[in-house]
Design a protein that fits this description.
By secondary structure, the chain is mainly β. It contains no helices and 15 strands. The strands form 2 sheets. Strands 2, 3, 5, 6, 8, 10, 12 and 14 form an 8-stranded parallel sheet that branches. It has a 7-stranded parallel sheet with strand order 1-4-7-9-11-13-15, with no helix packed on it. The radius of gyration is 14 Å and the shape is globular. The termini are far apart.
Amino acid sequence: VGYSSVANSLTITNGGRVINNYGLIGYAASSSSNQVLVTGTNSFWTNSSYVYVGNFGVGNSLVISNGGRVTDDMGLIGQDTNSFNNQALVAGAGSVWSNATAVMVGNVGSSNSPRMQNGGLVVDYWGLIGEEDSSSDNTMYVESGGVWRSRLISVGDLGSHNTLYVEGGSV
């Protein structure tokens, strides 16, 4: 969705299903303001590999709401050096983002921010926020009834000013 372009969208709703290998939302450096919305009970986006939210791009988003579900091997938000201000929101009862291995927030990028709230759930084995030395100001928000289930969590492994912010949610 917006592999190398601006302001494209994919909406999966009313029990819709999309099945693919890789989910690419704003993948290239020239991409920005692209969005995927998965909303409503029995609406699914199933990826056999990774989901990238702004691999190199800026201001891209993934929204999972009102019982929507996304599954993948790994979720990456703001993966590369020039990727920033990318977001993910998981909100509403039954809304789930399930990652078989990991969620990486700002692996090398900066100012990326996923949020879980109002019953939204993110599941992974390993959660990383600000992994490499150039990553900074990335924040994972777990708010107002949001839940993050992760077996291992790393905040700012080599990066600086990265945050896990929990207010009214649970980790």
